[in-house]
Amino acid sequence: MQATILFGHGSRDPVWRVPIDTVAQRMLTIDPQCCVRCAFLEITAPDLASTTAELVTLGVVSITIVPMFLGVGRHAREDLPVLVSELQCNYPQVSFLLNPSVGEDARVVELLAQIALPSVNL
């Protein structure tokens, strides 16, 4: 069984997580059979470790982690790889794939440019 974890920073504001939850819901709309969860680095629950533990108890053996960051800062570059390495040590039977941050995807860059472009002509 395969799962995807959408990984965000976290915030004290509960409304902050709505876009990431919406992406997860959209994934389920597109593919009702997919297994997707959200996890957060700090402040917002659940964290990556507890989300992974839940998935492993469900029988997941392959987890793709998608960093929902526009930029590639310290969290994406340093903190997240360390967390994934710890998970791999704790769950050697599970295959972990850490995707690049969504902001590095050319499709996201193109979409953001298309969204921002009309505002230039106001």
Q: How does the major sheet shape up?
A: 4 strands, parallel
Total strands: 4
Determine the oligomeric state from the structure: single chain
Q: Based on the structure given, which CATH architecture is correct?
A: 3-Layer(aba) Sandwich
Helix count from the secondary structure assignment: 4
Strand order of the largest sheet: 2-1-3-4
Strand-pairing-aware structural class: alpha/beta
Amount of helix: 40-55%
What is the domain tally?
Answer: 1
In CATH's first tier, which class applies?
Alpha Beta
List keywords for this structure.
single chain; Rossmann fold; 4-stranded parallel sheet; 4 strands; 45% helix
Write a structural description.
- The N and C termini lie far apart (49 Å).
- This protein has a four-stranded parallel β-sheet with strand order 2-1-3-4, sandwiched between helices.
- It has one domain: Rossmann fold, CATH 3.40.50.1400.
- The protein has 122 residues and is α/β, with parallel strands linked by helices.
- 45% of the residues lie in helices and 18% in strands.
- It contains four helices and four strands.
- The model has no long low-confidence stretch (mean pLDDT 93).
- 21% of the residues are buried.
- Helix 3 links the parallel strand 3 and strand 4.
Question: Can you lay out the helices and strands and say which pair or pack?
Answer:
Layout: E1 2-8, H1 18-30, E2 36-40, H2 48-57, E3 62-67, H3 74-90, E4 95-98, H4 106-120
Parallel strand pairs: 1-2, 1-3, 3-4
Could you give a quick summary of the protein structure above?
This protein has 122 residues and is an alpha/beta fold.
